[in-house]
Amino acid sequence: MDLGIQGRRAIVTAASKGLGHACATSLAGEGVQVWITARTKETLEETAREIAESTGGTVHAVPGDITTEEGRAAVLQACPEPDILVANPGVKQVPDNFRTMSRADWDFWMEAHFYSTLDLIRAVAPDMCERRFGRIVSMSVSFIKFPQVNFAASHSARLGLSGAIASMVRELIAFNVTINTVCPGLFSTEALHTNLHAHAKRGNTTYEAIVEDRKKGCPAGRFADPSECGDLVAYICAAQSGFMSGQNIINDGGVYQGLF
Ligand SMILES: NC(=O)c1ccc[n+]([C@@H]2O[C@H](COP(=O)([O-])OP(=O)(O)OC[C@H]3O[C@@H](n4cnc5c(N)ncnc54)[C@H](OP(=O)(O)O)[C@@H]3O)[C@@H](O)[C@H]2O)c1
Questions:
Q1: CB contact set of 164 (below 8 Å; sequence gap of 6+)
Q2: Which residue CA neighbors atom 31 of ligand 1 most closely?
Q3: CA-CA to 183 of 20 to 30 Å: which in 160, 200, 220, 253?
Q4: What is the pTM of this model?
């Protein structure tokens, strides 16, 4: 299937590892020129080389922290007219209780999981409308549909973002500009395994026991490979995906049981 996006330009944030890396790889494989970001310059540059080699595509590394104005300005300066934006916040959610969190803690999650993506969308969407093509994907989490205990701050920031997007999309779709939110479940990335190790430590159990427990709780019986997220995102960015916008798309091996 030809996604019809060869020669397009994409920004993929937080992409030296994990889900961002997979999205950048899938897009580069479709002939999209990609600008990737992450904070650690050496790892990012190595990833850019690796994706370029494995796909034959063109990949640019723009180091920076995407939760800061400087980080966002750097990638927008390097790629001022993206056709595609995959806004992955990168920052992994960590548990914290609402009783003990300070206002500064809540602000941190708003910066990481709300403003970082919102500001990028506001920067690129108007020009995408002018050019009559734009595909924006916001990387979220399946748990926004069934919020978990001890994640109130991160979940509320991400839910607020989905709400803001739902309000914006109807102004954009007539210009062939879409914004969709991808809501992954358990994908086998460094962040997932770090979280599971921490969870095992907190629960006084083993990492292996936690992994088995999580896999049992997933009807697919496994963790997904990041490429299963990357390819979904590439499809959402396809030329022929212009009729779908404002969706919160669950990709979690059947864990979420709701119909909508
Ligand atoms: N893996 C899952 O199962 C899963 C499921 C649902 C949602 N998610 C969400 O998806 C996102 C990515 O998770 P992942 O599993 O792919 O994590 P990962 O494997 O740890 O990769 C994180 C990537 O983001 C970069 N990053 C982190 N903070 C950043 C920042 N402030 N600015 C720029 N880049 C940053 C990291 O590089 P540097 O550290 O060098 O910056 C790295 O390239 C997270 O928001 C996570 O909550 C993951």
A1: 114, 118
A2: 65
A3: 200
A4: 0.98
